[in-house]
Amino acid sequence: MADASATPAATASAGTAVRVQVCYALPDDAFLQTLQLPTGTRLAQALAASELLQRFPALKAAHDGGELKVGIFGKLKPTDTVLRDGDRIEVYRPLQADPKESRRRRAKHKQQAASGS
Fold it and tell me: Does position 117 have pLDDT exceeding 70, yes or no?
């Protein structure tokens, strides 16, 4: 797991700063970085200040294309959201399968098994 402290460029003076965490989880890796940023910083700015987009180039492409899904404490948020002290920014991976389609498939198999076909 990567745990980097705030870089000097991302550090604000005491009293006018918010402390946030940026996290991204993969099946075999994880990224966690704590940043201290100026009050009024937006979610997109925090992502840019973190090392996340440099470490995972595919995320940078998704971010630049406006396709990156991010949230704070499990709730999807737009990248222009103003951060508050203690926020945990979570970067979400795309779903591997559509949940609705998966349920339909399971129901169909269950129905077929019950009818004996």
Answer: no
